[in-house]
Amino acid sequence: MDRSQKADSVASLNAVFNEVGVVVITRNLGMSVAQSTALRLKIRDAGATYKVAKNKLAQLAIKNTDYEGIDTMFSGPTAIATSVDPVAAAKAVVDFAKTTDKIEIVGGSMGTHVLNADGIKALASMPSLDEMRGTLIGLIQAPATKIAQLTVAPASKLARVFNAYAEKDAA
Length: 171
Known about the structure:
The chain is an alpha+beta fold. It folds into 2 domains: 3-126, Alpha-Beta Plaits (2-Layer Sandwich); 128-171. The protein has 6 helices and 5 strands; from the N terminus they run H-E-H-E-H-E-H-E-E-H-H. The protein has helices at 3-19, 33-45, 55-61, 88-97, 117-124, 129-170; strands spanning 22-28, 49-51, 78-83, 103-110, 113-116. It has a 5-stranded antiparallel β-sheet with strand order 2-3-1-4-5. Strand 4 and strand 5 form a beta hairpin. The longest helix has 42 residues, at 129-170. The protein is elongated and about 95 Å long. It starts with a helix and ends with a helix. GO terms for molecular function: large ribosomal subunit rRNA binding; structural constituent of ribosome. InterPro entries: Ribosomal_uL10, Ribosomal_uL10-like_sf, Ribosomal_uL10_bac, Ribosomal_uL10_bac_type, Ribosomal_uL10_CS_bac.
C-alpha cells in the first residue's frame, strides 16, 4: 500500500467515524473465510458495516472525531463494526460472538463514551432504534384506540337492546 492509498484509506475511515453512532472493535482469533463471510452478512443485514483496517491507519482516522478515546484498543488483528443506529452493530457482533470463540469483543465507543466489552454487550441487549420507534408508536396509538372503543360501545349496546325488543315483539 503506497502513501496515496493510505491517505485515501484514512480519509474514508475518518468520514465513516464522523457519520456513525457507534463503533465496535473486535479481535479476530483465526476465523475461517466462511465464518468471516457469515459475520459480514449478519452485520450487513443489521444495517451496519464491518471493516478490517490497519491499526495505525485507524488510529490516524479517529483523530478529530468523537472516537479519539478508543485509539488504545487498536492492537493485534482488529476489525471495526460501525452503524448509525447505536445498537445495530453491537447487537450483530455480540450475537455472532455467542456462536463462536474465534472473535473477541475488545470494546468500542458510542459517541464520546468509551465502552469496554461489557458495555458493548449491555448496549447490544437494548432494543434497536426501529424497535423503540414501534413501541413508541404503539404507546401513542393505544389511548386513541381506547377512546374510539368507548365512543362506539354505547351505540352498539343500544342497537343490541333495540334488536332484542324487535325479536321479542316478533316472537
